[in-house]
Amino acid sequence: MSLLRRVSEVLSHHGLNPRALLSARRLPGFVADAWRYRRLTEGEAMPLRLRHLFPILSERNAYAGVTRSHYFIMDLWMARRVLAAKTSRHVDIASRVDGFIAHLLAGEVTVTMVDIRPLPNLPQGLLFMQDDATLLPKVADASLPSLSSLHAAEHFGLGRYGDKIDPLACFAFMRTLARVLADRGRLYFAVPVGRERVAFNAERVFDPRHVEALFAAAGLKVEERALITADGDLIESVEWHDHVDVGDGCGLWVFSK
Q1: Which helix (H) or strand (E) element contains residue 15?
Q2: What CATH number belongs to 70-256?
Q3: N or C: which end of the chain has fewer CB within 10 A?
Q4: 86-104, pLDDT tens digit by residue?
Q5: Is 79 in contact with 100 (CB distance < 8 Å)?
Q6: pTM
Q7: Maximum CA pair distance of the chain?
Q8: Which is it for strands 234-236 and 126-130: parallel, antiparallel or unpaired?
């Protein structure tokens, strides 16, 4: 990732959007549009009041939506596979509620979600347990036939979400997923992949071959794998040796036990 892009991401996480700041150059056009609109609504039932101005300057030339982001592609790819398995109940660890889990709920799958953060206002079909999922001591071995954790393992032990600092927590969590997965069950898993490193305290980036080796040692085998590249391209049935330097990608896996 370039230094400029990294700085942009850090600023965005702290409420400063560099792109929005650059959009200030469109302010003269906004003023001209507002003046024109006000003239056209003189005497109308809903005239423009200056005190109600609410300038949105960054969307005039934006796309209709975002379909090349890691989260959009990952959530859709994984949800299709869970729904195709025709499971009625599913357990998830800390994936996106407004993406992957929403897809499952729309498909009438009852989802039990575990997260270290609270989740108020549960929608129909979603059950919730607030807990540190590193070890899941209350979950029996080989008890969950359908299990997922998408873009979450990389955060374990970094303190970002109020969890305890533990450099080995992510690996303990991955072994826990293997432990609680039922025989012939499926684990849907995704993490950032690329040059292995810790971007403290945002995330870790994993070598995808190391991810597969850890799960293989825990008794799981790869059913499917895919890569979302840094540019948002999806590569199905990826072979990692063809992508030794995957940049800042996202690895997607379906494991079975």
Answers
A1: none
A2: 3.40.50.150
A3: N
A4: 999 999 999 999 999 999 9
A5: yes
A6: 0.87
A7: 75
A8: unpaired
